[in-house]
Amino acid sequence: MNAIPPNFGSSQARSTVSASTTSMRWAALSEAAQVVAMLAGIEPERPGKDIRNFPALIRDAEPWRREMADRGCADLAAVMEPGIATLLAVNARGADCKPAALALWREFTQARCAVLALLPPAGEMGPRRYA
């Protein structure tokens, strides 16, 4: 009757680890996007408030939103890693990688928009806060 269930307390630890992983992955994706923009020959963008604050905003969202955002970031990283490696290899050989970089940039921005759409609506007073 007084035994602690095996998963007691682990959900918060798991949530913290997941939030930290998502935050680090999001930062890495933002840096990778700057590299792709440079290779595409376009001016790197200045990230908006939602992009900069995404890890903090999604951390406070419902569990299903956090899970989908984590999966979306993982999927986006899975696309960007080999894409950048290929672009750098093409560039190192002296070939023009701008068209491929521009295609990867477009894929990245579309996927990032989909991940950002998972943020809960904030309204005019900012994100929802809980006491």
UniProtKB/TrEMBL annotation:
UniProt protein name: Uncharacterized protein
Organism: Aurantiacibacter spongiae
